[in-house]
Design goal:
heterodimer, A: Rossmann fold, 2 domains, four-stranded parallel β-sheet, 11 helices, globular, B: 449 residues, mainly alpha, Fumarate Reductase Iron-sulfur Protein, Chain B, domain 2, 20 helices, 0% strand, elongated, binds iron/sulfur cluster
C-alpha cells in the first residue's frame, strides 16, 4: 500500500526521446500542502494502476499565477504564465491534466491568449475517460451505500461548466449522492477563491467556509466529496469547526476511488 | 375644442419625445466614456443569448414566483403598448378607436388587453406586497437607500394607476356605446370587447353622457400622459432595464465565466522583459505596434472612465433586484461587499461625471473617484471571484469584472494589497508558489510516504 511509485518527469521522458500521454500539472497546493499532497498521491496511484504514461514537470513547474491574477497583479500573473508557457512549449506539451480547478481554469482559459495552447482537463474528467475507455474500474468498496454530498468548486463548476464528471465517478462508487440546497451553477463558494486563501477575511459575521459547511451538513452526509485542494482545506476546517471531524471525512473524488480499491 | 385637444396632444407628444431623445443621447454619451472593448464577435451566439435571457427571461424563472409574475407584467406591458399605436393616432387625428375596422380581430385585441391589464395589476400588487409587506431581505439591504426604494415603489404605483386608467377608460367607452352617444356608438354595434371593464359598469351606471365623456376623456388623457411621463422617468430609474436588457445581454461576455481578460498593456511589458534581445530603451518606431505598446496612463480602474463601455452599460441596466447580492458568499457572511452596490455606485458616479460634463463642457476634476468615494477597498478585497453574482443576474451583468479592474488598480498602481497577499505574491515571484517553499523542493512529495 505504501509502495513508492516512480513519478517520471518531462526531463526524463525527453532524455529517452519519448513523449508521455499526458502531463500531470501538480500545482502548488498539490506539491506543498500536506493535505493536498495526499490527493496528488492518490491520483498518481490511479494513473499508475491504469497504465497511463504520464509525466510531471517537477522542479520546472511554477505557480500558474492564478492567485496573483485574482488579486489584481496582472504583471506577476503574466510573468508566471510566460515562464510556464516557455517550459510547456519547450516540451511540446499537448495535453494537461490537473487536480486543481484553479490551475485548470487558468491553463485552459487564460494561457491560450498568451501563447500556451493545450488540451486541459480536470482529473475527474480524466478519470471518467479512463473509465469509459475501460482502462480503469471503479467499485464501491468501503464507500458503497455511503451518503455523500459533492461540493462544486467554483472554478470547475460555474466557471467552466464541469458538473457531471465528478458526480458520475461518485455514482460509480455506488454511493448515495445527495445534493446541497445550493449546488451546480448555484453552488456556494468555499471561501478560498480570488486569492482569499492567502489572506484574512474582511470583517463579517461568519466565515464563508462555515456557511458552506453548514449547507453540506444539512444534507446529513457521511462524507463530503471535493474536487479542489483549496475547497478541501476549507471544508475540512469547516467540519472541524462544527466538531464533526470524527464523523464526517472530507475527501477528494480521486482519493475515494483510490481508497475504494485499497490503493 | 376638438382641434384644441389635438394640438395639445401633438405638443405633449413632441415634448415627451424630445426629452426622451435628449436622455438617450446623454445615456449614449456617458456609456461612451468607457474604454473600448470588442463585443461584436459571434453575432449569432449573441443574438441567441439575447433571445434567451432578455426576451425569454430564462434567468428570471430561476426564482419561479418572481419569475412568472415578472413574465406576466412584462408581457402585459409590452402587449398593452400595442394599444398605444391606436391611442396616438386617435390623439393626433381626433378619431375614435381608429383601428376598429379590423372587426372581430379588434375585439379580440381589446379583450386580451383588458385581461392582460388585470393580470398586470395583480402581478404589480403582489410585487408591492413582496417589497413592502413581506419585506424580502434583498429589497431592504444597506444600499437600498431611500431613492432606490422609492424608485421601485414609484414604478409599481405607476403601473397600477396606468392599468386602472386603461380599464376605466374602456368601461366609460363601453357605457357610452351602450347608451348610443355620438362619436362613440357605431351602427355596426359594440366595437371592442370588454371582458374586464364590463364589471366596472355598475359604478358608472346612470351617469349622464357628458359625465361619461368626461370620465372617458380624463382617463384617456391621464393614461397617455402617464405613459409619456414614464418614458422620461426611465432614464432616472432602475426601470431602464426594460430597454437596456436587450443590448446588455447581447454584449455580455461569451467566454467561460472563469476566463478573465489578459491586460494588453501588461502583455507588451512582459514580452519586453522575456525577450533578451529587446532593448527597453529603444525609441519606439512610429508604427502601429509601437503605439499599442505604449504604456497606458493607468493599469486597472479607479474611476468610471477607466472601465469599458460594456461595464458602464451594465451599470445603467442594473435593475437593483439584488439577486447577485443574495448569492454572494461575502455578502451572505456579513461582509460589506454587495455586487448590487458595485453596480449602483458605478451608475451614480457615472451620472455625476455626466453632470460634470454637462456643466463644464468637458470633465473637470472634482477630486472624487469611484474608488474610495463610492467603493471601498474593504468591499473589493472581500470578493472570492466565485462568479455567483454573474450567474445570478437575470440580465447578464458582470459585477465581478468591475471588482477585478479596481483590484488591478489597487495592486498595480497603488501597491495597496492586504499585507498577507503581498507576502503570497512575493513568494510566487521568488519561489514559484504562494507559500515560502523552495522551488527545488517541488517534487519532494513523490519521495514521501
Ligand atoms: S464574484 Fe465576488 S461579488 Fe460576485 S458573488 Fe462572488 S464574491 Fe460576491
Ligand atoms: S447586477 Fe443584476 S442581479 Fe444584481 S441587482 Fe443588478 S440586475 Fe439584479
Amino acid at each position: 500500500m505504501t509502495e513508492e511509485i516512480k513519478v517520471p518527469t518531462m526531463a526524463e521522458f525527453l532524455s529517452q526521446g519519448k513523449a508521455p500521454e499526458v502531463l500531470f500539472w501538480v500545482g502548488c497546493a498539490g506539491s506543498f500542502d500536506d493535505r493536498a499532497k495526499k490527493i496528488t498521491k492518490a491520483f498518481v496511484k490511479l494513473l499508475h494502476k491504469a497504465g497511463v504514461e504520464f509525466a510531471v514537470l517537477g522542479t520546472e513547474e511554477s505557480c500558474t499565477g492564478d492567485p496573483a491574477k485574482r488579486a489584481g497583479n496582472e504583471f506577476l500573473f503574466q510573468m508566471q504564465a510566460a515562464m510556464n508557457i516557455q517550459v510547456l512549449n519547450g516540451y511540446e506539451i499537448k495535453k494537461i491534466v490537473t487536480a486543481c480547478p484553479h490551475c485548470f481554469n487558468t491553463l485552459k482559459n487564460e494561457y491560450p491568449d498568451l501563447g500556451g495552447n493545450y488540451e486541459v482537463i480536470h482529473h475527474t474528467q480524466f478519470l471518467k475517460s479512463l473509465l469509459e475507455e475501460g482502462r480503469m474500474t471503479v467499485e464501491g468498496g468501503k464507500f458503497k451505500g455511503k451518503r455523500i454530498t459533492f461540493h462544486d468548486p467554483c472554478y470547475l463548476g460555474r466557471a467552466n461548466g464541469v458538473f457531471e464528471a465528478p458526480r458520475e465517478l461518485l455514482q460509480k462508487l455506488e454511493v448515495e449522492l445527495v445534493e446541497m440546497r445550493k449546488c451546480k451553477k448555484a453552488g456556494l463558494c468555499c471561501g478560498a477563491g480570488g486569492a482569499q486563501m492567502f489572506k484574512e477575511p474582511e470583517p463579517g459575521n461568519k466565515d464563508v467556509n462555515i456557511l458552506r459547511t453548514e449547507q453540506a451538513l444539512e444534507t446529513q452526509p457521511d462524507m463530503i466529496a471535493a474536487g479542489c485542494p483549496f475547497c478541501n482545506t476549507m471544508m475540512t476546517d469547516g467540519v472541524k469547526n462544527k466538531n464533526k471531524e470524527n464523523d464526517i471525512e472530507v475527501l477528494d473524488v480521486a482519493e475515494m476511488i483510490a481508497q475504494a480499491q485499497d490503493l | 375644442m376638438a382641434i384644441l385637444s389635438q394640438i395639445l396632444f401633438v405638443l405633449a407628444l413632441i415634448f415627451a419625445i424630445y426629452f426622451f431623445i435628449r436622455n438617450v443621447k446623454k445615456l449614449v454619451r456617458n456609456i461612451k466614456l468607457g474604454k473600448t472593448i470588442n463585443r461584436r464577435d459571434q453575432p449569432s451566439k449573441r443574438f441567441k443569448n439575447m433571445a434567451m435571457v432578455a426576451l425569454g427571461q430564462s434567468k428570471m424563472v430561476k426564482r419561479p414566483i418572481a419569475g412568472i409574475l415578472h413574465i406576466v407584467v412584462y408581457l402585459g406591458f409590452v402587449i398593452i403598448n400595442i394599444e398605444m399605436i391606436e391611442i396616438v393616432i386617435d390623439g393626433i387625428f381626433g378619431t375614435h378607436r381608429v383601428l376598429s375596422f379590423m372587426g372581430g380581430f379588434y375585439d379580440f385585441l381589446i379583450g386580451s388587453f383588458e385581461i392582460l391589464a388585470l393580470l398586470v395589476l395583480v402581478g404589480v400588487i403582489v410585487f408591492w406586497i413582496r417589497r413592502n409587506v413581506i419585506r424580502l431581505k434583498r429589497f431592504w439591504a444597506n444600499e437600498m437607500t431611500s431613492w432606490p426604494k422609492n424608485d421601485a415603489n414609484n414604478i409599481l404605483y405607476f403601473e397600477m394607476i396606468l392599468m386602472v386608467l386603461f380599464l376605466t377608460m374602456n368601461a366609460a367607452d363601453y357605457q357610452l356605446q351602450l347608451v348610443g352617444a355620438d362619436h362613440y356608438a357605431n351602427e355596426a354595434g359594440i366595437i371592442g370587447a370588454f371582458p374586464v371593464s364590463q364589471f366596472l359598469l355598475p359604478l358608472i351606471d346612470g351617469l349622464s353622457i357628458s359625465s361619461l365623456i368626461f370620465i372617458e376623456r380624463t382617463a384617456w388623457w391621464l393614461h397617455i400622459l402617464g405613459v409619456l411621463f414614464f418614458l422620461n422617468y426611465l432614464y432616472y430609474s432602475k426601470h431602464l432595464h426594460i430597454l437596456l436588457a436587450f443590448p446588455n445581454t447581447y454584449f455580455a461576455k461569451l467566454q467561460p465565466q472563469g476566463e478573465f481578460n489578459n491586460l494588453e498593456a501588461v502583455k507588451n511589458e512582459v514580452a519586453l522583459m522575456m525577450d533578451p534581445n529587446a532593448d527597453p530603451f529603444a525609441v519606439p518606431a512610429d508604427d502601429a505596434s509601437a503605439e499599442s505598446a505604449a504604456i497606458p496612463d493607468k493599469f486597472g480602474a479607479s474611476d468610471v472612465q477607466d472601465l469599458n463601455w460594456v461595464q458602464l452599460l451594465n451599470s445603467y441596466t442594473c435593475t437593483e433586484c439584488g439577486r447577485c447580492t443574495a448569492e454572494c458568499p461575502a455578502n451572505q457572511t456579513g461582509k460589506k461587499l454587495s455586487p448590487r452596490k458595485i453596480m449602483m455606485d458605478t451608475r451614480d458616479r457615472l451620472e455625476e461625471v455626466g453632470k460634470n460634463i454637462d456643466k463644464n463642457g468637458k470633465f473637470e476634476n472634482d477630486n472624487k473617484q469611484l474608488l474610495n468615494d463610492y467603493i471601498t477597498k474593504e468591499e473589493l478585497w472581500a470578493c472570492t471571484t466565485c462568479n455567483a453574482c454573474v450567474e445570478a443576474c437575470p440580465i447578464g451583468i458582470d459585477p465581478l469584472s468591475i471588482i477585478m479592474d479596481m483590484r488591478r488598480y489597487l495592486v498595480m498602481e497603488e501597491s495597496a494589497a492586504p499585507n498577507e497577499l503581498n507576502i503570497a505574491m512575493g513568494n510566487i515571484e521568488n519561489n514559484g508558489a504562494p507559500w515560502p517553499y523552495n522551488q527545488m523542493d517541488r517534487m519532494n512529495w513523490s519521495q514521501e510516504k
